[in-house]
Design goal:
Rossmann fold, about 40% helix, globular, alpha/beta, 7-stranded mixed beta sheet, about 260 residues
Amino acid sequence: MLRIKSYTNFFLKFIKFKFYEVGYDENYYKNEQIKFCEKLNINFINGKNIVDEYNTNFPNVRKGNSLHWEIFAGIKEKKKILSILEIGTDRGEFTHFLNYLFPHAKITTIDLPKYDEDFINSYNRKNKLDKYLDNRDNLIKLPNVTFKELNSLQLTLDNQKYDLIWVDGAHGYPVISIDIANSIRLANKNALIFIDDVYKDLINKEDPMRRSMGSYQTLEAFKKAKVIDYSLLHKRTKKPFAHKKLRKFIGVIIKK
């Protein structure tokens, strides 16, 4: 019975995606991404070339299909970034990539303690936790990377400042709102803050760890209060992922 339900859900998802592909202009969204990035002093095309180079040098590091890799790689003034905070280490692949991009920066990456229930029970870690932790720890064992087992809410007590912050922890209320608030407070002047998985339109059920409207609503609230301005970049442009019913964004704040 469960197998039949699984097949049915897969078939319905396949049909839905095919429907969203009708009239989808992939080149339009790719060009839009390039233009949006250029306004933020990000060379997206050059970033893609750097990612391709990285993949050649490190073929065993899983990349995924999120465009935040190309966005970070396309930052034009990398030499000015000397301190980085990553909220949400996950498997450590992006931490490793940050080290590749910014070899002279001090990188602090945090994730929940390994025995935290939210950590164990999310992202299919439970049944392969030891292997997961070994792979992550080996990947981020780098001279300029400091890993901390830390609930991101504890950053409320921190005063360390950063030139670049990547917010990719829990995506639901209240954590995402607090993470964004702390990132604004901990950012140096002219620092870049990027927020993963910003949903403007969410048709699926909210998940406190993986999907929520929380980041978008928080950004809007800070903008309305004139604390920040922000931009949105596409997380994916391949067919049909920038469609209104599927799209999610990378939020960008430049600290003034």
